[in-house]
Amino acid sequence: MCEVCDSCAERLPIERFRRTEARALRPLDGRAPFRQVRDLTRRVQSDCCIELDTNAYSVPWHLLGELVRVVVCGGRISIQHEGKEVAVHPESAGRRQRLNEPAHFAGISRVPALAQPAALPSGPPDPALLRPLREYELLVGGGW
């Protein structure tokens, strides 16, 4: 093929593209014409979570050890087991994050899910509970 005569130029792919296909293309307005979907399989770990992109997403505790389907689409994570959606989380933008849903841990123990620790008393300590360090040194057999 040569680049001089018209008959050869019509056979060049770039020329054919410019004549026919380029005119049919439309701008995308800065967005992809398709939705990116990731369809994965994960095993529920002993902490009631699945790991995805270094982040942990909670799953109902009764699915420990089970394989689940994870669908990531549009900033949403859908976790499915046996065809039913069992958990939904927003996709974390960070890394090494934990997204826990308290309802996923309900019934696993008598302690309320994600209970807050009791507040420590404020003020000076009770003098009856204070002992000199010398007593501890004698008890364990020596000091510094």
Blueprint of the fold:
Elements: H1 6-9, H2 13-24, E1 37-43, E2 49-52, E3 55-58, E4 67-73, E5 76-81, E6 84-90, E7 98-99, H3 133-140
Parallel strand pairs: 3-7
Antiparallel strand pairs: 1-4, 2-3, 4-5, 5-6
Molecular structure report:
With 144 residues, this protein is of the alpha+beta class. It has a domain at 37-105. The chain is built from 3 helices and 7 strands; from the N terminus they run ααβββββββα. It has helices at residues 6-9, 13-24, 133-140, and strands spanning 37-43, 49-52, 55-58, 67-73, 76-81, 84-90, 98-99. It is elongated and about 100 Å long. The termini are far apart. The mean pLDDT is 83.
Mean pLDDT across all amino acids: 83
Beginning-to-end CA distance, first to last residue:
94 Å
Helix fraction by DSSP (H/I, runs of at least 4) = 10-25%
Largest sheet: 4 strands, antiparallel
**Count of helical segments?**
3
Would you list the SSEs in sequence order as H and E?
HHEEEEEEEH
Q: How large, in whole angstroms, is the Cα Rg? A: 32 Å
Strand content: 25-35%
Number of strands: 7
Physical arrangement of strands within the biggest beta sheet: 1-4-5-6
- Which segments are poorly predicted (pLDDT under 50) over 5 or more consecutive residues? none
Characterize the overall form: elongated
Class by helix and strand content? Answer: alpha+beta
